[in-house]
Amino acid sequence: MKNILIIAAMIGVAAILQSNSRLLNEAKIKASGIDMPDDVKAVIDKSCYGCHHKDSRNEKGKAKLQWDNLDELSKAKQVATMEGIIDVLKEDAMPPKKFKENYPDNIPSKEEIDKLIDWANDQAKKIMGE
Amino acid sequence: MNKIIKIILYALIILLIVIQLIPVDLPQNANPTNNDIIVAEEVSPEISRIFSVACYDCHSSQVKYPWYSKVAPASWLVARDVKSGIEAMNLSEWGELSKRQKLLYLDQISGVVKSGEMPLKAYTIIHRDAELSDQEREMLAKWAEDRMGQIFEQ
User: Fold this and answer.
1) Could you say which of B100, B108, B111 has the minimum Cβ distance to residue A79?
2) Cα atoms in the Cβ-side hemisphere of radius 13 Å centred on A80
3) Cβ contacts (< 8 Å) between B148 and chain A: which residues?
4) What pLDDT tens digit does each residue of chain B (154 aa) get?
5) What are the angstrom distances between the C-alpha of B63 and each of A100, A116, B124?
6) Is ipTM > 0.95 here?
7) Which of A59, A83, A88 to mutate to test the interface with B (most CBs of B within 10 A)?
8) Nearest by CB to B103, which of A63, A64, A80?
9) pTM of the model as a whole
C-alpha cells in the first residue's frame, strides 16, 4: 500500500512539473524547419526561454523573441532572428545583467554561448540555402 | 534673500561656462555615398523623407547639429545618443552590410517603428517634424517587411 502511494505521489508531482514546464516546445521547433540538437535546447531552456516565450511576464522579452513561435515566422524573419541572436550573444547583451543577478545558476558559460552562436549561424545558412 | 539668489545665479552661469571646456566627441559627418540606404535600396520619396527626418540624426553620417547641440550639457546628450545610434545601425553604410545583416536590421526597423520605440521621445519632443504618424509607421514597417522578403529571395 505504502509503495503504491509513493508511486502515485511521484506520478502526481511529475504531472504537475510537466504542465508547468517552462521548456521549449520541440514540436513547434520541428514545425519551423529549424534543427535543434538536445545540447542547444538545454542552453535555451536554461538561459533564454524564461523570458522569451509567449506567456512570459517579461514584456520586452516576449515582444522581441518567442522561441515557440519560430514556425509562424517567414523564412526571412527566421534568418533575421538567427542573426539577432548571434548579435546579442556576441555583444554580451543577453542574457541581461538583471537576469544574471537574479538567476546566477542560469548564466550560460562561454562554451554554451559559443555553441548557441554556432548553432544560430548554421541555421541561418541552412534557411538561406547555403 | 536677493543676495543669495544673485550668488546662486552667478554660480550657475560660471558653471555653464566652465562645462563648455570639457571636450565632447560629436561623431563626424561624411559625404553621402551609394552605400546610403536611400540609394542602395532605391526607396520611394516618401520613405526617403521619413528616413531623413526621423532617423538620420542618430543613425547616419549626415547628422544635423544645430547650435544648441554643441553647447554643454545638451552636447553630452546628443553625443551619447548619436554614438549609440550609429553603433546600433548606420544607414549611411547600408550597402556594406551582408544579406543577413540587412534582414536583421529591416526586421528591427519594422519592430521599433510599430512599437513606437523609435524615434526616441527625447528626440521628437524637440524635433516635432520627426514624430511619425500611425500611417507613416505602417508604411515604413510594410516597406521593411516587403524588402525583407525580396532580399531573402535574391
Assistant:
1) B100
2) 24
3) 74, 76-77, 80
4) 799 999 999 999 999 999 999 999 999 999 999 999 999 999 999 999 999 999 999 999 999 999 999 999 999 999 999 999 999 999 999 999 999 999 999 999 999 999 999 999 999 999 999 999 999 999 999 999 999 999 999 8
5) 36, 37, 15
6) no
7) A83
8) A80
9) 0.86
